[in-house]
Amino acid sequence: SFWLFARVMGKGSEIKAGSYQITEPITPPQLLEKLVSGDFHLSVVTVIEGWNFKQMRAALNQNLNLQHDSQHLSDAELLHKLGLNYAHAEGLFFPDTYFAALGSSDLQILKRAHETMQKHLQAAWAERAPGLPYRNPYEALIMASIVEKETGRDADRNLVAAVFVNRLKKGMRLQTDPTVIYGLGDKFDGNLRKIDLQTDTPYNTYTRGGLPPSPIALPGLKSLHSALNPANSNALYFVARGDGSSHFSSTLTEHNRAVNQYQRGR
Hints:
Elements: H1 2-8, E1 20-21, H2 28-37, E2 41-46, H3 53-62, H4 75-82, E3 97-100, H5 106-126, H6 137-150, H7 154-170, H8 177-184, H9 194-198, H10 221-228, E4 237-240, E5 246-249, H11 252-262
Antiparallel strand pairs: 1-2, 2-3, 4-5
Helix pairs in contact: 5-10, 6-7, 6-10, 7-10
């Protein structure tokens, strides 16, 4: 992405905040130079990895430099407007930074974000590992969104994906909290309770087998690649260590021992 390029060039923290307008073709190095110096105007929309579609729509609506053609549309109406035949809008748009002329329609940003997601998803699908339990790229996208929400540590993503792939292959329930939280929607108050894990929704992977009916977030490139090329591991469980990383286990006994060590302080 452009932000990765900016970080690699050591300029990520020097980009000036504000509205920008671009009226002619420009290369990434030229664009970076101008954003650092702040000498022209264009609309900049940043969509964060792990956001859900509701958060993306809020960011578009709050951007004063865009024309808000989607603001009063339902998700279903928006998909129809974009010519997309999906039951759910979640996960269809790639998280990245998008640049457009001042006053551009938010539908242009959404169209570009969807096209970018399709490009990355199809490329990853073409290079997928053999024997994965996905019937189509959309199911891989669902898995990628779960991986995106389960860990913020890139080094763990392919292991997290391996856990869920292994569980699917064995017919085990995924039992992943982020899907439960997504299913709760606005009812989630930041505290996931035992009763929530027992309350059935289409997204509760404790009460239902298989994948949820749609993605639960906008997955980034690392999560897409991890879902389609998981680690070569027998792990079926993982628990947070408390330092941002996770401990992975292939047996319930080992997992319970890790839970005692890292979460219960025993």
